[in-house]
Specification:
Blueprint: H1 26-35, E1 37-40, E2 48-51, H2 53-56, H3 59-73, H4 78-81, E3 90-94, H5 98-109, E4 112-116, E5 127-134, E6 137-144, E7 148-157, H6 161-172, E8 175-186, E9 197-203
Parallel strand pairs: 3-4, 3-7, 7-8, 8-9
Antiparallel strand pairs: 1-2, 5-6
Helix pairs in contact: 3-5
Length: 204
Amino acid sequence: MNGKGDKWRGGWTPRYENNFKKIFGDKKVNEYKKHIKEYKDFPIEGITYLDLNPIYSNPGLRDELVKDCYDICHSTDTNLKHMWYTNFDYIGIVESRGFIIGSILADRLEKGVVLLRSKKDRLPGKTHTVTHKLEYGESMVQVQEGKGRVLIFDDVLATGGTAGGSIEVLKDAGYTPIGAMFLVELDFLKPKLSIPHKSIIHYE
């Protein structure tokens, strides 16, 4: 199932490339951006909210975005292989917008899912909680205890507060975060993480 040209659930074939940069071109990224709506001063004044719902509601675009994420995980680029490939056990999906594509990607990759909740006391059993800063305030992330290698997945990487909190809480809970993936990265905010990460769409 890991060979070139294998069929995966949904009836599509992954497009393996020797260099992941070949997978995405400006034309495709611009097509994604055309469908991302910007809302100024939301949720508070001074913040521009990027709404990916038009992509999620479009089956063709949504599936293409999942394929792009899948291709990064299966890239044979020598600089990425040690970092990505399928060398992890779970995708840690961040509430709530990370749940959508992250769940589909986990199914395609046949990986387990670890829920990173942003609301307290929504998970049973032994849990760990970390508070973190956002570009417009504070939030928290909570996860159940466990073991295994986790690829963190979320929709947007802005200042890196949520991702940083996710990394910290996963370690506290017994997991090993090995990398992170985002649909959108706001490069102009210069986010920095303690683990390797890749993003599909960039705003410079």
